[in-house]
Amino acid sequence: MNHVTFGLLVLRVVLGVWIACHGLNKFFGGGKLAGTGRWFESMGVRPGPLNARLAATTEVSAGLAMALGLLTPLAGAGIIGLMLVAIVVDHRSHGFFIFRPGEGWEYCAFLAVAAFSVATIGAGKASLDHAIGWDVEGYWGAGIALIVGVLGAAGQLALFYRPAPKVESAS
Predict the structure, then answer these.
(1) Cα 14 to the center of its chain, rounded Å
(2) Residue 135: pLDDT band by 50, 70, 90 thresholds?
(3) What residues does 45 pair with on adjacent strands?
(4) Fewer Cβ close by (within 10 Å): the C or N end of the chain?
(5) Does residue 136 register a pLDDT over 90?
(6) Cα angle at 121 between 2 and 87, to 5 degrees?
(7) What pLDDT was estimated at residue 120?
(8) pLDDT tens profile 17-65
(9) In this structure, are residues 87 and 109 in contact, taking their beta carbons and an 8 Å threshold?
(10) What does the radius of gyration of the chain's CA atoms come to, in whole angstroms?
(11) CA–CA distance from 143 to each of 39, 61, 90, 114, 126 (Å)?
(12) CA-to-CA distance for 69 and 131, rounded, in angstroms?
């Protein structure tokens, strides 16, 4: 295994496992799906329970697919879509930087760019895509990941995001 294959494998596995862990945390951690659903509702993502299941399932499936290098452009699209929704719904109002959990959008954007980059480069030789002869890379991988990810996020937001109107203070 050469250094490029090894570096791509490490990036792909770490990115995928971290995303999958976020989904597993929604299923089994803290408030579980019910708590995640209530949190989503509080941010205007309705119905919360359905969207908690959708988010957790997408995180686990896209994360595992990325880690395994299976259908990599679609795994990248899943991660891009998840991160775009997270940025719009929660992080953008806090600015760019993350100083405390729940702030800023830099981390979500980084994960989306990393997923896009892996989809563009391709999963590499140490992947299931390569093993089954489904190496999609370059502009095709980039296009699939970007278009499907952005359209998925836009659809999710259009269907389910209903933020409360901002209340102006009387001065």
Answers:
(1) 13
(2) very high
(3) 161
(4) C
(5) yes
(6) 125
(7) 98
(8) 999 999 999 999 999 999 999 999 999 999 999 999 999 999 999 999 9
(9) yes
(10) 17
(11) 32, 20, 26, 14, 22
(12) 10
Answer yes or no: is pLDDT of 161 > 90.
Answer: yes
Distance CA 124, CA 27 (A): 31
Residue 122: both structure tokens together: 């391709």
Query: Which amino acid, 93?
Result: S
DSSP codes of every residue in the chain: --HHHHHHHHHHHHHHHHHHHHHHHHHHSTTHHHHHHHHHHHTTBSSHHHHHHHHHHHHHHHHHHHHHTSSHHHHHHHHHHHHHHHIIIIIGGG-S--SSTT--SHHHHHHHHHHHHHHHH-S-SSSHHHHTT----HHHHHHHHHHHHHHHHHHHHHHHB-PPPPPPPP-
Only one residue has tokens 């879509």, namely: 81
Cα angle 48, 49, 50 (rounded to 5 degrees) comes to 95
Interval 139-151: pLDDT, tens: 999 999 999 999 9
The whole-angstrom separation of Cα 99 and Cα 80 is 22
Q: What is the pLDDT of residue 23?
A: 98
